[in-house]
Amino acid sequence: MKIFGIRAILEAIENEETLEKVFLQRDLRGSLYNELQHVIRKNNISFSYVPKEKLDRLSKNNNHQGAVAHISQISFHDLEELISKSQDDTTTPLFLLLDQISDVRNFGAIMRTAECCGVSGIIIPQSGSAPVNAESIKTSAGAAFKIPICKVNHLKDAIFLLQSYDIETVAATEKTEESIYDVDFKNPIAIIMGSEGRGINPSILKIVNHKAKIPLKGEIESLNVSVACGVFLYEAVRQRDFR
Predict the structure, then answer these.
(1) CA 98 centroid distance within chain
(2) Are residues 42 and 135 in the same domain?
(3) What is the pLDDT of residues 185-212, one digit of tens each?
(4) 207-234 pLDDT, tens per residue?
(5) For residue 208, which phi and psi values (nearest 5 degrees)?
(6) Do both 215 and 176 map to the same domain?
(7) In this structure, are 145 and 230 located in the same domain?
(8) I need a labelling partner for 218 at 20 to 30 A (CA). Which of 80, 113, 126, 227 fits?
(9) Is residue 65 domain-shared with residue 151, that is, in the same domain?
């Protein structure tokens, strides 16, 4: 759902509505506009500056006052609380981190597969990730309402937190000699998938416990990220359920 108008968005934040993203008119001035910018930053809400023409389209030419926001259709979870709960529920939690997956259909397909594989939670960055919107929810076949999703400021901090709870991390990358079939997925683990274009950020690759690749036999050098994610998740399922 979209809301528009500076005061309406401020009230939504004050009432603890979960905002997916806020679009602000570029080069706008004013005390109320400055207050909105301050509140957005204070609450770590994803935002971007756009031309007035885009806001006109988003608001269907209503009086948007230079601001339009998307209200999320789901509630996001606190990561530390989710980790603690997952360890109460199972001895082998399985998490999935998505490093700026930007295509909503890929994101929806990943959510669907993750829910089918019993993933404890999906972790995405506050900015740069595909939104949980009508299209991604539709592609997920409703899995977006069933699987916990966490938004964090920085994935590196999430990785350090997971590791502090003795949850190992494995990055899906072709920049390694280790095969996916050499990794032990039977222990508590978090799988990290990279973006469609550049893969996993090099700074993240430096801090993970394992790096693993999927063997490819054809001439094409990579799989679609949602397909690759399914391969990793179902290898975890295979190892855990068919020991």
Answers:
(1) 5
(2) no
(3) 999 999 999 988 888 999 999 999 999 9
(4) 999 999 999 988 888 899 999 999 999 9
(5) -80, 160
(6) yes
(7) yes
(8) 113
(9) no
Residue 79 structure tokens: 């990561």
Give the range of the structural domain holding residue 103, as residue numbers without chain letter. 79-241
- β-pair type (94-99, 189-194): parallel
Query: Within 13 Å and on the Cβ side, how many CA atoms surround 236?
Result: 26
CATH number at residue 201: 3.40.1280.10
On whether both 39 and 141 belong to a single domain, the answer is no
Residues 106 and 174 in one domain: yes
Task: Count CB-CB contacts under 10 A for residue 33.
Answer: 16
Contact 28, 35 (CB under 8 A): no
